[in-house]
């Protein structure tokens, strides 16, 4: 009987004894099951939007030396838009049949996202035993950006891994490898191009050697192997330069969809460009030596601005803002306020606001939530930095930076310039006797 009890004790689940353990025990199974549901059920089931099919067809055409850039841009179906260098990298997916290839692509994206999240934890000095790990895993796989990346089966999970690897290696001053990480993403799509401002202002010039060299080399290899490389230049590039009015959360996209006058669209873009410029100046002027804060906050500002102010911004691009969102663990983070998280809800939430009862209002909320989320995020970041600057200037401590006063280390007391008085003889003898 005693031996049976001892054996059963080995099977007994551990009981959380601290809030930290309780949260970990509660969230890990929920997070893991959420990942499995997104991958095995939602992603495998797929959706009417299929980003993988045109990529597979293009890869198959490339392997068989047939024209690749034949998309009819009069239709709103997903088109193949990758350059020849991206086609070369994607070509192996067409070696096997489409269904198994799609499943493997979903798996590759899932693994890439999980690795990227682990690197993100390490970037902030956290590990798998911290409560941030299951929270981060659950939150990311519950978001629209990760869910639709897997369901639509596009390459954004691998791009996220390239971004996080780029930032980690940049912080470690592994410049050439940092350039490799981001250069591979450039070969497929230039969505991370604004991040090159980081090595530029930090003087890490070697990053540019591999960041620009890799896509150029891959293009040089792919060009003679392609049946129609010039059609990418003459047919696809003009389309990429246009600002479409569907599936576009940029200011210009939603502005055209709702029929805003051109002057109003340009005015809105000008206002937010000014906010971005102000934020970048304050970040560079006062935070460039606080490397982690500077890198993750600046990267978030640059990417959000490129989608909101550029010609095309889609909600699932928001995955690339995970480093900025994760910066909430920093004491001086710009994300430690409720408006910032209202913005995060706008561009990360999987909630649909389409309503059968409130049709027009629901459609507007659904189509505008990403645009409003990105806009609010830029407003919040500028507002936090500007208030810090004004406060520090008023208090006369700009030389110490613009972090809130409660985060500053207390100043050491200024030593007195007056000579110490020697103790009186009676006091000395009293001390000696005691």
Automatic annotation (TrEMBL):
Family statement: Belongs to the glycosyltransferase 87 family.
Membrane topology, record value: Multi-pass membrane protein
Subcellular localization: Cell membrane
TM segment ranges: 103-120, 126-143, 150-170, 176-198, 205-225, 263-284, 291-309, 371-390
Chain positions covered by the region annotation Disordered: 406-434
Top-level taxon of origin: Bacteria
Species of provenance: Rhodococcus oxybenzonivorans
InterPro entries reported for this sequence: GT87
Keyword Membrane: yes
Record's keyword terms, sorted: Cell membrane, Membrane, Transferase, Transmembrane, Transmembrane helix
Keyword Membrane: yes
GO terms, molecular function: hexosyltransferase activity
GO (cellular component) term, any one: plasma membrane
Protein name: Arabinofuranan 3-O-arabinosyltransferase
């Amino acid at each position: 009987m005693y031996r049976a009890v001892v054996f059963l004790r080995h099977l007994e689940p551990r009981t959380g004894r601290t809030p930290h353990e309780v949260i970990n025990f509660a969230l890990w199974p929920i997070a893991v099951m959420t990942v499995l549901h997104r991958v095995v059920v939602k992603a495998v089931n797929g959706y009417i939007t299929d980003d993988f099919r045109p990529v597979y067809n293009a890869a198959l055409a490339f392997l068989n030396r047939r024209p690749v850039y034949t998309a009819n841009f009069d239709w709103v179906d997903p088109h193949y838009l990758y350059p020849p260098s991206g086609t070369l990298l994607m070509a192996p997916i067409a070696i096997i049949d489409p269904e198994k290839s799609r499943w493997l692509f979903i798996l590759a994206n899932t693994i890439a996202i999980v690795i990227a999240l682990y690197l993100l934890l390490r970037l902030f000095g956290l590990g798998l035993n911290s409560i941030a790990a299951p929270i981060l895993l659950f939150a990311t796989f519950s978001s629209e950006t990760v869910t639709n990346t897997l369901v639509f089966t596009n390459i954004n999970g691998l791009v996220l891994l390239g971004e996080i690897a780029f930032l980690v290696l940049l912080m470690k001053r592994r410049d050439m490898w940092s350039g490799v990480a981001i250069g591979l993403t450039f070969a497929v799509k230039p969505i991370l191009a604004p991040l090159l401002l980081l090595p530029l202002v930090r003087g890490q010039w070697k990053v540019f050697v591999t960041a620009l060299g890799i896509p150029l080399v891959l293009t040089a290899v792919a060009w003679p192997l392609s049946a129609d490389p010039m059609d990418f230049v003459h047919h696809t590039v003009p389309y990429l330069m246009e600002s479409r009015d569907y599936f576009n959360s940029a200011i210009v996209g939603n502005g055209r969809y709702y029929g805003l006058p051109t002057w109003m669209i340009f005015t809105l873009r000008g206002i937010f460009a000014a906010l971005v410029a102000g934020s970048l100046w304050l970040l560079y002027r006062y935070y460039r030596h606080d490397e982690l804060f500077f890198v993750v906050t600046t990267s978030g500002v640059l990417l959000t601005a490129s989608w909101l102010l550029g010609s095309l911004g889609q909600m699932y691009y928001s995955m690339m803002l995970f480093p900025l969102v994760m910066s909430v663990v920093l004491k001086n983070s710009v994300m430690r306020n409720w408006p910032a998280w209202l913005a995060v809800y706008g561009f990360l939430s999987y909630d649909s606001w389409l309503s059968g009862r409130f049709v027009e209002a629901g459609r507007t909320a659904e189509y505008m939530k990403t645009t409003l989320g990105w806009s609010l995020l830029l407003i919040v970041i500028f507002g936090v930095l500007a208030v810090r600057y004004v406060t520090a200037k008023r208090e006369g401590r700009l030389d110490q930076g613009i972090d809130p006063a409660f985060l500053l280390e207390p100043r050491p007391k200024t030593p007195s310039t007056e000579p110490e008085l020697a103790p009186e003889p009676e006091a000395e003898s009293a001390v000696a006797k005691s």
